[in-house]
Amino acid sequence: MNNYFKVLRPGINSTFQDLGRFGLQHLGIVASGSMDQLSFCNSNKLVGNKISEGALEFAYQGPLLEMNGENALVAVSGKVNFNLIKKNSEIIKGKSNESFQISNGDKIDILSTINSVYGYFSIFGGFKIEEVKGSVSTLVKAKIGPNNGNKLKIDDKIFFKKSHQTNKSKKIEFDFDKDNTIRVMQGLQVHYFSKKSQDDFFSKEYKVTKLTDRMGMRLEGVKLENIVNKNIKSEGITKGSIQVPGDGQPIILLSDHPTIGGYPKIANVITADYDKLVQKTPGTTIKFKLVNLAVAENAFQDYVRKF
After folding, report:
1. 3-class DSSP string for the chain
2. What's the pLDDT score for residue 163?
3. What confidence tier does 169 reach under pLDDT thresholds 50, 70, 90?
4. Dist CA 257 CA 242 (whole Å)
5. What is the domain extent for residue 9?
6. How many domains is the chain partitioned into structurally?
7. Which conformational region is residue 260 in: left (phi greater than 0), alpha (psi within -120 to 50 degrees), or beta?
8. What's the pLDDT tens digit per position in 217-234?
9. In this structure, are 129 and 250 located in the same domain?
């Protein structure tokens, strides 16, 4: 029997992701990977997979999927409003961060994320998706990854591996960090900005705008004054780099960022606060707190203990 989910509604931005595709940035291929790595790993933990197993990531509204095949153990992680629609049309309110059984003919309707952006859907044993350069992460703009490098679309079939696990459900107590302070370290070109602009950046609030996706997050706030040069020679950039283009409004580069960039960078988000950052919805105001390397390293140690 073929085991698959039929996509009845694809959702807004539903793609397969894992922990990323590394070692190819020199070729212009960014690592990509799940936006919120802790939520992603939790989704795999809930169904008993290794934490690096590929999962389905969705933003804002997820897919409506119809199950065809044998019983399977699945989970939805993050803060997500979803329903399980049984074959007999009974509707059961879904519980995030808790694994559950799904049977032939059942549907999962992922309606929306709650005061957050990203959620994840995992299945015990994993999906049958092909690795590209050692990863199943999807980079849509370059058409790299499973599903021909595309987002889900209606009538797609998502095949999954045969599952023997039946009743080992699990629950993870989880809530997002509601703190809107994002810790950063100084960027390579912090000195390109006036002393007042540096002080403003590290003390004033910035608003997350709707111009935000997997590639970057545009912010709106106090205009930053560049006193050296609004462009630099293009150089390699990393996830979490905060570039400031000519309009003086910061852009935080996210998981699908370009591999090189030519705008000065005032700061870089520390790894430990990246998951928290990407779950901030448009309209949220955030503040940046400048920290040193020792603080960032300690925060990273605390972060990895959660996995």
Report:
1. CCCEEEEEECCCCCEEECCCCCCCHHHCCCCCCCCCHHHHHHHHHHHCCCCCCCEEEEECCCCEEEEECCCEEEEEECCEEEEEECCCCCEEECCCCECEEECCCCEEEEEEECCCCEEEEEECCCECCCCECCECCCEHHHCECCHHHCCCCCCCEEEECCCCCCCCCCECCCCCCCCCEEEEEECCCHHHECHHHHHHHCCCCEEEEEEECCCEEEEECCCCCECCCCCCCCEECCCCEEECCCCCCCEEECCCCCCEECCCEEEEECHHHHHHHHCCCCCCEEEEEECCHHHHHHHHHHHHCCC
2. 64
3. confident
4. 11
5. 4-159
6. 2
7. beta
8. 999 999 999 999 988 999
9. no
* Cα 30 from Cα 138, distance rounded (Å): 11
Structure token digits, residue 65: 């999927």
- The identity of residue 103, as a single letter, is S
Question: Which has the closest alpha carbon to 157: 16, 7, 54, 12?
Answer: 7
Task: Kindly give the pairing relationship between strand 285-290 and strand 181-186.
Answer: parallel
Residue whose token pair is 């790993």: 41
Same domain, 80 and 190: no
Give 82's pLDDT tier (boundaries 50, 70, 90): very high
Q: How far apart are CA 207 and CA 169, in angstroms?
A: 39
Retrieve residue 106's tokens.
């059942």
CB-based contacts of 131, cutoff 8 Å, min separation 6: 146
Q: What angle do CA 137, 142, 147 make, to 5 degrees?
A: 50
Closest CA relative to residue 235, chosen from 253, 259, 218:
259
165, pLDDT greater than 70: no
Q: Are residues 16 and 148 in the same domain?
A: yes
R_g of the chain, CA atoms, integer Å: 20
Q: Is the pLDDT of residue 168 over 80?
A: no
